[in-house]
């Protein structure tokens, strides 16, 4: 897999809007630091490594909603996590300060 991935523009589809509506109804925790572990742009998902060493699943719609233009594996970000079926999922993402 390439060391970098890029998303150009802020384009959402009706499917993204439905996914985001579902995520907005979830209760997310506080902002916490993380690192983009890897991201598969064609498949539209990736994983974030959190500061405690655990991983969290992230769907492409979360990146799009945050307006990311470019993302690179290993980049520092901040995320808000919620649990679904006992697993960590990213509900919100923003650039690390």
What does this 3D model show about the protein?
By secondary structure, the protein is of the alpha+beta class. It has a single domain (4-95), classed as OB fold (Dihydrolipoamide Acetyltransferase, E2P) (Beta Barrel), CATH 2.40.50. The protein has 2 helices and 7 strands; from the N terminus they run E-H-E-E-E-H-E-E-E. It has helices at 14-24, 60-66, and strands spanning 4-6, 32-40, 45-50, 55-59, 70-72, 76-84, 87-95. The strands form 2 sheets. Strands 4-3-2-6-7 form a 5-stranded antiparallel beta sheet, with helices on one face. Strands 1-5 form a two-stranded antiparallel ribbon. A hairpin with a 4-residue loop joins strand 3 and strand 4. Helix 1 (14-24) crosses helix 2. The longest helix is centred in the N-terminal third of the chain and has 11 residues, at 14-24. Residues 1-12 have low confidence and may be disordered.
The end-to-end distance, rounded to whole angstroms, is: 27 Å
Shape: globular
Number of strands: 7
CATH class: Mainly Beta
Secondary structure category: alpha+beta
Number of domains: 1
In what range is the share of β-strand residues? over 45%
User: Architecture in CATH?
Assistant: Beta Barrel
Number of helices: 2
Q: State the major sheet.
A: 5 strands, antiparallel
**N-to-C order of helices and strands:** EHEEEHEEE
As residue ranges, the low-confidence spans are 1-12
Radius of gyration: 12 Å
The fourth-level CATH homologous superfamily is Nucleic acid-binding proteins
